[in-house]
Amino acid sequence: MASRVAILLLLLAASSALAAAQKGSSSKAPPKAAASGPAADAGPADSSPNTDLSKALGGPTGQYSKFLQLLHDTRVDDQIKAQLTDSYNGLTIFAPNNAAFDGLKSGTLNSLSSQEQIQLVLYCVLPRFYSLNMLGSLNGKVTTQGSGKDGPYKYDIKRVGDNVNVSTGVNSMLLGAPVSKEFPLAVYPVPKMPLPYELFGPKPPTPAPAPAPAPAKSKSKTKKHKKSTGIAEPPVADDSTAADDQKSAAATSAGGVARWVAGLAVLGGAVLSGLF
């Protein structure tokens, strides 16, 4: 009996010691919140790409307000926003400042039709993202949003020293430092309005009007002789020949009368000489 009590006491003591050991190990473990808190917040911040052209150009009160207004009036700003959201190529924009608009001849924009104004704005937009180094390496003709599949409305872009020169065929300009250079939107200020050759280049000369048709010739009153049909036609008398014939007949008649009178005189003389 005593041995059973002793064994029971030993089992109770062992279980108590095991419970104490487990409690001590759990109290030394770091809390889960501490392990996941600061370490999780140490990751990189979430930065969205810049697709707000108006913000990049300083908004409606900035030095590009006239360009932004033209984008809005032609509804090209909606097209740009949609392309920046959905396109994998990005866009590059040459943005003329307000001074560039002021440098245009009076009435230049108003002289363009609505479609031509849209073409003018699309000409300022390249259909993919170009860094400044990429633009400098192009060295040739570059299509724009205004170009067709193989159509006009292109730039001639070349590097000039450390700068990039953009030529339209009508005017040219150096690109300023980009105001937006992160994909998908690159925006370069330009000091002039890019004028596409197709809208502002010299017009071909107007073709000369076709010569007026020559006046119809009046029909001659003189009757034309009909072509011979196998029957001889009487000759047409010439007026001068007819007059000469009349004179000759008259002379012949006068001579006959004179001879007749002379004959009568001779006959009368013979009769008289027989009587006497």
Automatic annotation (TrEMBL):
InterPro entries reported in the protein's UniProt record: FAS1_dom_sf, FAS1_domain, FLA_A
Keyword rRNA-binding: no
The protein's name: FAS1 domain-containing protein
Pfam families, per database record: Fasciclin (PF02469)
Family of this protein: Belongs to the fasciclin-like AGP family.
Main location: membrane
Function: May be a cell surface adhesion protein.
Domain of life: Eukaryota
Keyword terms: Cell membrane, Glycoprotein, GPI-anchor, Lipoprotein, Membrane, Signal
Domain FAS1: residue ranges: 92-197
Bilayer topology: Lipid-anchor; GPI-anchor
Gene3D superfamilies: FAS1 domain
GO BP annotations, alphabetical order: plant-type secondary cell wall biogenesis
Compositionally biased tracts (Low complexity): 25-49
Signal sequence extent: 1-21
Subcellular compartments: Cell membrane
